[in-house]
Design a protein that fits this description.
globular, 58% helix, 0% strand
Length: 222
């Protein structure tokens, strides 16, 4: 049983995720696997959660493909080169990091300038005022869809042994190293993340109405 598990590339992908969890546990002392996705208010941040799951997905895919290449390499031959990360997958990671960094910068700036309330009730799907945020839901849904689609593509990629240079139309692109993200899907993810950041900027720059006077101002005498 153990021998069969070791011969499965997915086993090593899961081992990599376990190592990531243990590293998080050692540094944060929290058993919550998504602790690194918490914002400054202690609740889960949408941008940080998206960044974390994309990191988990990329690590799992990379280690799984590397393990598959090593398992299928003929005995006695040089070890195969490590696969390159596709450009669209790198862009997706970059968008995710930019979104989480920008979101945090906007929140910190708003607090410093006094344009946001001190009490932050934001969660994965709610804003600072504890109200449902459609832009957060949209970005989270697209992120989860992206993860699901990529896992299906990864399974097909490994099943067809694309990492060995096998030419299978629509499954194994030329010089395939890792399955890539579809360009159209990448645009949709970029739009969702852009809308999320734009919503943060609008909520920051829109001032709340303030009561300056209780009594009516005295009319100027002529």
């Amino acid at each position: 049983m153990l021998s069969m598990m070791i011969q499965s590339p997915y086993f090593w992908g899961i081992v990599a995720l376990i190592c990531m969890y243990l590293l998080s546990l050692f540094n944060t002392h929290s058993r919550d696997p998504f602790y690194l996705a918490r914002g400054h208010n202690g609740q889960s941040s949408t941008s940080l959660f998206q960044n974390l799951i994309f990191t988990i997905l990329t690590v799992f895919a990379y280690v799984t493909v590397v393990a598959a290449r090593f398992i299928d390499s003929p005995p006695g031959e040089p070890l195969p080169a490590l696969p390159a990360v596709p450009i669209n997958l790198l862009v997706l990671m970059g968008l995710s990091i930019t979104t989480s960094t920008t979101s945090k910068a906007i929140a910190i700036t708003s607090q410093v300038e006094g344009k946001s309330s001190a009490e932050d009730k934001s969660t994965l799907l709610k804003d600072r005022d504890d109200k449902f945020d459609l832009t957060k839901a949209q970005m989270l849904i697209w992120a989860l869809v992206a993860v699901g689609v990529y896992l299906v593509v990864l399974y097909s990629f490994i099943s067809a042994k694309c990492y060995l240079g096998v030419n299978v139309p629509d499954l194994c692109p030329k010089d395939a190293a890792l399955p890539d993200i579809d360009a159209a899907f990448l645009v949709l993810m970029g739009v969702a993340q852009g809308t999320y950041v734009a919503g943060k900027l609008v909520s920051r720059t829109t001032a709340k109405p303030l009561i300056e006077h209780i009594l009516p101002a005295k009319a100027k005498e002529i």
